[in-house]
Amino acid sequence: MTTSATKQPVKGPSKRSGLGISRAEARRETIAAYLFLLPFLIVFVGFVLIPMVMCLWTSFFDSTMAREDIFVGFGNYIKMFQDDIFWKALMNTALIVVVAVPTVTAFSLWVASAIYKMKAASCSFFRCIFYLPVVTGTVAVTVVWKWMFNNYYGIINYVAKGVGVIDNNVNWLGNPKTAIWCIILILFTTSIGQPIVLYVSALGNVDASLTEAAQVDGATKLQTFWKIMWPQITPTTLYILVITTINSFQCFALIQLLTSGGPNHATDTIMYYIYYQAFKLYQYGYGNAMGVILAIIIALLSALQFKVAGKGND
Amino acid sequence: MKKALALVMAGAMALSMVACGGGSTSTATSGSTAASTGTSTASSGAATEITLWTYPIGSWQKEETVNGFIAEFNKQYPDIKVNVEYLDYTNGDDKVTTAIEAKNTPDIIFEGPERLVSNWGAKGLMVDLSDLWTEEATADISKTSEAVVNACKGADGKYYEYPLCMTAHNMAINYELFKETGALQYIDEETRTWTTDNFVKALETLRDSGKVMTPAIVYCGGQGGDQGTRALVNNLYSGTYTNADHTAYTANSAENVKALELLQKLNNEKALTFDPALQASDELQMFANGTAAMTFCWNASNEATYAEQVTFTPYAMNFPTDDGKVELCGGIWGFGIFDNGDDAKIEAAKTFIKFICDDATQGPASVQATGFFPVRSSFGNVYAGTEDETRMATFQTFLPNMGDYYNVTGGWTEQRTAWWNMLQEVGNGSDVQAAADKFVETSNAAIG
Amino acid sequence: MNTVTGKMTPYKVISGIILAILTVFLVFPLYWIFTGSVKTAADINTPTPQWFPTNPTLANYEKLFDNPALLWLWNTIFIAVVAMALTCITAAMAGYVLAKKKFYGRTVIFSLIVCAMALPKQVILIPLLKEMSFLGIHDTLWAVILPTVGWPFGVFLMKQFSEGIPNEMLEAARIDGAGEIRTFVQIILPMVKPGIGALAIFTFITAWNDYFMQLIMLTKNTSLTISLGIANLQAEMATDFGLIMAGAAVAAIPILAVFLMFQKYFTQGITMGAVKG
């Protein structure tokens, strides 16, 4: 189709009708626009916006099961900052994001650059392979990894012992030092599929004449990459950064099914801790307060990514 | 004109979407709407429809068993339709929680006092079942154990549970393996007891034999089956889990700390393994396939479940003690009714519970399906003449060792999480006293 | 970079090796699911893993289908397909006007959408739960579908796509006297088709895998999804990897089949989805 990454982002032209349209026309446009928006707005307001407001509202209450809510002001937020486990969960979440996001992005870029010039068949073979864990489904992937990491009859211990990496069985998911890395590893396998597909196509769209010209001019491969290709794939990179960040923050099934946040809270994440507070201890107000904080963190981070990555783009 | 048409079209699109949504709801969920519409018709005197949610207690997780019981029930009460949902212990509590928040709770629920009485009952969600506790029933159940009667009663004196069956949770060893390695000398086969010292010796013997991957596993990957680890810790040096009137947790007492330190030492010496990646179910699996030489999570029902899988004799044992006085954790299961505000349904639910628990022929059959023992002494031996008779006779001998039923202490839910987290810390080599103190602090704070 | 069929450089050898390792690493879990599902309990619970199932058995599948596994599968498909269809329709319409129309409140709505996108869905679950019960649709598949449709990502995506439509085309349509609906159906929809394809695939996968939402919203054994079903199979007293692998296999097969059949569209769709970033 006509849309393509190589074209300039369309920004200016949409302002065209902004000038001097008549009042009647503006009204007409507004009514038509809202009618088009209506189906979405109903669901959006009903099932996203209202719960969001309720979430914010409840975060100022001590709210639990089968009892009237008690207003506590910022009580839940104060409690949160004094809650060691919350801080631990926050640090774990940060660790997952800080490790997973750059790794996934860099690695998928590398894989994509390694396969995008291959023959069509092999390229699509690899894309397919890397995308498999994504489509298989988180729960299915998680349960098989749980078995593979098993201390006693997991294949990972067997292989690692076989090749001499370890002497004794390692309790991968039971050791506070290794558990979170196992989680990150599994998250990695389920996260790289999409970025690879995206990068393969973005790299394929880079204008070949530009790179050739640069090489004729004596630029090294690395220089060609940074000067010519990188700017052109920046929008893709930005998109990948954002979705990977959100995915990493929301990693929940992995934790719930593999470690329940243990051992010693080593794999507690904010997401899991919210779930635990709300659904195990019925601390709805407290859980919601953490949700609000998490939302703010993600929003700030996304904004930051847009800003940083957006710089090179314009 | 065109504009008007556009508006109508857009509106129609929006409407059709909503309509389409509404329309298919009824087809997709026709099964569920039947249950919820029952509410309005129930009081009109026509058939009453009630819902039973059951946790996996013995064969009560099997559809054919439960449906058989309902068929029996409907022979006498054809006007009461019973729908059943089967919960599991992994997500069951979440489901009940969401159901409570969604005001979508079942009428009847089948579990134990720690949920029915101290959790949902204490929150005022359950119906007072005092009228089921007739003088006859109370006397009959008291004769078996006064503790059962007390456990079913909330702090407010109301009964939130009507019990069906009970058991004493114990542990089991791999008999052949013990024999082969020479560890058998450390147990008293007559009384199925052992001392703390002999327990340690047995573990060391098993470890040194090299015939088993790990002699024992202290599972702490979640709360499931935690009665086993609690009983183990408490019995080693005769500690208690809570104080006598169930107002404070006492896991940091000198006896308990000593026990935890012993376990930590054994863990360091590889005589047993603290495993934060395993839950009770995993540990049982390890025991059943010979990876571990004993399990701390055993009872009559588990023995029945794993009977087909094991290639050895799982030999039920008491927990090791220093003073010879074993205190086993009791398990009590029974029915409670969620207060959905519909008297007709509550009545129907009570009728069902009475039939299942008290009926002269159904009662014993209901108990038999659980694989545990009746709370009613008048039922006598419900396993007499069945193929389970000998096995159950063995487990019957554990019942007198049942200790204090402390599961009704406040903050029970929080405490359960804190417990396995504490075990994880102990297994990880942290200071035992500090970990136990932290556990007690967290748990006591939750008593509220 | 280099010419397509260059000589073997050390870099190429190393990258080949890494790719091979990665392939094994990603495919092996799948292999392990399928082989595990036909292994006996004894063959599974052994410290020396069996690379190939020597005594294949269907016992795990028999045990699995004691549960309403096919119904779970159907529920999952229903959720994914309906959520996909509704999302595509609503998002295409909303995305178009947000990109191409000037109207009062546009900035506000778009800001709300962007803000809501950053919010992790899970944090609104408790209010959402209460709302669903208020509406009487808790524990129905709609309780999972509607919040998925309301999720603003699709609108964001479709807005980015619709911005690529040349204004001249809209202008021409207006001059031709085409009404709003006709403009949308005849001009906009064909132009954003790749975007819709991308969104469809994206929504389908998201809805299929949205374990958390399903966990909270669905209770009854008959309204479970296959993911929940597998998770429930890990019941407290019997961890049975063979059975769980059978469940995982049943969960994975349909979506893998769809993926392999439509692989081209998948990759195309995903790519289209990010064109704008």
Automatic annotation (TrEMBL), chain A:
Q: Where is the signal peptide?
A: none
InterPro entries for this protein: ABC_transporter_permease, MetI-like, MetI-like_sf
Every ABC transmembrane type-1 domain range: 90-305
Q: Which SUPFAM superfamilies match?
A: MetI-like
Q: How is it placed in the membrane, per its record?
A: Multi-pass membrane protein
GO BP annotations, alphabetical order: transmembrane transport
Gene Ontology CC, one term: plasma membrane
The record's subcellular location field reads: Cell membrane
Q: Which UniProt keywords apply?
A: Cell membrane, Membrane, Sugar transport, Transmembrane, Transmembrane helix, Transport
Report the domain of life of the source organism. Bacteria
Residue intervals passing through the bilayer: 31-60, 89-116, 128-148, 178-200, 237-258, 281-304
Q: Which PANTHER family match?
A: ABC TRANSPORTER PERMEASE PROTEIN, INNER MEMBRANE ABC TRANSPORTER PERMEASE PROTEIN YCJO
Family as reported in the entry's similarity comment = Belongs to the binding-protein-dependent transport system permease family.
Q: What is this protein called?
A: Multiple sugar transport system permease protein
Q: Which organism is it from?
A: Allofournierella massiliensis
From TrEMBL, chain B:
Among its keywords, does the record have Transport? yes
Which keywords, in A-to-Z order, does the entry hold?
Cell membrane, Lipoprotein, Membrane, Palmitate, Signal, Sugar transport, Transport
The signal peptide here is 1-21
Q: Cite the Pfam families for this sequence.
A: SBP_bac_1 (PF01547)
Name of the molecule in the record? Multiple sugar transport system substrate-binding protein
Q: Which organism does this record belong to?
A: Allofournierella massiliensis
Q: What is the lineage of its organism?
A: Bacteria, Bacillati, Bacillota, Clostridia, Eubacteriales
UniProtKB/TrEMBL annotation, chain C:
Which Pfam families does this UniProt record tie to the protein? Answer: BPD_transp_1 (PF00528)
Which compartments is it annotated to reside in? Cell membrane
Q: Does the keyword Membrane apply?
A: yes
Question: Which Gene Ontology cellular component terms are annotated?
Answer: plasma membrane
Query: How does the entry describe its membrane topology?
Result: Multi-pass membrane protein
Question: What UniProt keywords apply to this chain's record, in alphabetical order?
Answer: Cell membrane, Membrane, Sugar transport, Transmembrane, Transmembrane helix, Transport
Residue stretches making up the ABC transmembrane type-1 domain: 73-262
Q: Which family does it belong to?
A: Belongs to the binding-protein-dependent transport system permease family.
Kindly provide the name given to this protein in its UniProt entry: Carbohydrate ABC transporter permease
Q: State the organism named in the record.
A: Allofournierella massiliensis
